[in-house]
Amino acid sequence: MRDIIVTGLILLLIAGVAGAALGFVNAITKGPIAEQNKIAEDQAKMTAFPGAKEFTPMDTSEWESLLSGDEKEIVKSVDMAKDSGNVLGYVIKVAPQGYGGPVETIVGITKDGKLTGINIVNHSETPGLGAKAQDPKWQAQFKGKTADMQLKLVKVPPSSANEIEALTGATITSTAVTNGVQTAIDVFNRINK
C-alpha cells in the first residue's frame, strides 16, 4: 500500500513539473507565434488585395450589426485596405463550413465593388480534392467579379460572368468557398452604402 502512495506522489510531482515547464515555454513562445501569425495574415491580405500597403481593422460594431443569420458564424473580420491613408477597399475574412471544417478565406473588394482576389489561408479539406481550392488558378476565377453579381457555382466551364467552375471531386469545398465569397460581397454591399 505504501509503495502505491509513494509511486502516486512521484507521478504527481513529475506531472506538476512537466505542466509548469509547458506553461513556461508557452508564455515565452506566445508572443512570437502571434507575431508570425499576424505577418502571415497580412501577406494573405496583400495577396487578396494587391496594391494595398496597410490594413486597418474596422471596429466590430461598424459591421457586426449588418450581419444576418448564418453570416454571424461565417464573417470573422473586416479590414480597410489602404495606401497612404486612402481607403482603397476592404478585405473581409470569412470561414464557411467546407467538407473537413471551416475554409478561412480572405476576400479583397475595391471601393467601387470589384473583387481583387481571394486567398484561402486555412482549411482542413481533403488533400488532392478540396485542398485544390488553394490553387491560384482556381482562385483566379473570382478576380474581376463585381459586387452587383450573384455568384453561381457550375460543374462545367462558365458561360456567364457570374459563374465559378467547381473543383472536380470537391463540390462541397467549391460551394463553401463560393458561398463565403458571396457572403463577403453581401457584407461589402451593406458597408459600402
Automatic annotation (TrEMBL):
Pfam family, one: FMN_bind
Cofactor(s), names only, from the UniProt record: FMN
Broad class of enzyme this protein falls into: translocase
GO terms for MF: electron transfer activity; FMN binding
Superkingdom as given in the UniProt entry: Bacteria
GO biological process: electron transport chain
EC numbers, comma separated: 7.-.-.-
InterPro entries in alphabetical order: FMN-bd, Ion_transpt_RnfG/RsxG
Membrane topology (UniProt): Single-pass membrane protein
Compartments reported by the entry: Cell membrane
Domain FMN-binding: from-to ranges: 98-188
GO CC annotations on file: plasma membrane
Keywords: Cell membrane, Electron transport, Flavoprotein, FMN, Membrane, Phosphoprotein, Translocase, Transmembrane, Transmembrane helix, Transport
Record PTM FMN phosphoryl threonine, positions in chain: 171
Transmembrane segments: none
NCBIfam families hit by this protein: rnfG
HAMAP family, per database record: RsxG_RnfG
Family of the protein in this entry: Belongs to the RnfG family.
Function as written in the Swiss-Prot or TrEMBL entry: Part of a membrane-bound complex that couples electron transfer with translocation of ions across the membrane.
Binding partners and assembly: The complex is composed of six subunits: RnfA, RnfB, RnfC, RnfD, RnfE and RnfG.
Name this protein carries in UniProt: Ion-translocating oxidoreductase complex subunit G
Organism in which the protein naturally occurs: Calorimonas adulescens
Native organism taxonomy: Bacteria, Bacillati, Bacillota, Clostridia, Thermoanaerobacterales
